[in-house]
TrEMBL record:
Organism of this sequence: Penaeus vannamei (Whiteleg shrimp)
Protein name: TMEM9 family protein
Record region (Disordered): 130-152
Signal peptide annotation: 1-22
Any Gene Ontology CC annotation: lysosomal membrane
Cellular localization per UniProt: Membrane
Alphabetized UniProt keyword annotations: Membrane, Signal, Transmembrane, Transmembrane helix
Pfam families, per database record: Tmemb_9
Length: 191
């Protein structure tokens, strides 16, 4: 799947998130009560009842009893003290904004990654010939002309951005190669 397909999917999902209606209310009353059959002594499971009511009506009488009145029949005074009701409110618009922001950041990172993948062949074009040399002896490398042993001579830096990025990438790769050589071959650490 290409990068443009990922961008399309992320854009589509973000627009869907903006224009869909909320399935849940921003303000609701949640009551956690025992199962109505606990009054009869047969079960001890807990049930959750949710209703979008005003904060003043967030109690067992207004949220739970209309649903279970047939099951408890006259034992409301035994059932309601076992219920815990609390009123919750949240801001779903803030949640939507945060989700959309995270989606856009991820999509920007995907676009940046695709840009780097497209840019990498351009930077590595000048290194098309293999630069492998026969490995003879590490002591022979110490006598090479130039800077540090085993380090290639710096390439001519082009004045454009791609040249500077390529030069920094070559410099970083040489440093990594030198670190590997020191750690694995010479068993020393760079300071």
């Amino acid at each position: 799947m290409g990068t443009s397909a990922y961008i399309f999917i992320l854009t589509f999902l973000s627009f869907c998130a903006v224009f869909t209606e909320a399935q849940y209310e921003d303000k609701r009353c949640i009551c956690i009560c025992p199962d109505p059959s606990v009054i009869n002594g047969t079960k001890s499971n807990r049930m959750v009842y949710k209703e979008p009511v005003a904060p003043s009506k967030c109690d067992c009488d207004n949220v739970v009893l209309p649903r279970v009145a047939d099951d408890i029949k006259g034992r409301e005074q035994e059932f309601c003290p076992r219920c815990e009701c609390k009123y919750e409110s949240r801001n779903s618009n803030t949640i939507k904004v945060v989700v959309i922001l995270v989606i856009w950041i991820i999509s920007l990172l995907v676009v940046y990654m695709a840009f780097l993948h497209c840019l990498d062949p351009l930077l590595n074009k000048r290194r098309s010939q293999p630069s492998y040399q026969e490995h003879t002896n590490e002591d022979d490398e110490a006598g090479t002309v130039g800077g540090a042993p085993g380090m290639a001579q710096p390439l001519r830096v082009r004045p454009n951005v791609l040249g500077r990025v390529g030069h920094q990438q070559d410099k970083w790769k040489r440093q990594v190669q030198e670190q590997r050589r020191n750690i694995y071959d010479r068993h020393t650490m760079l300071n």
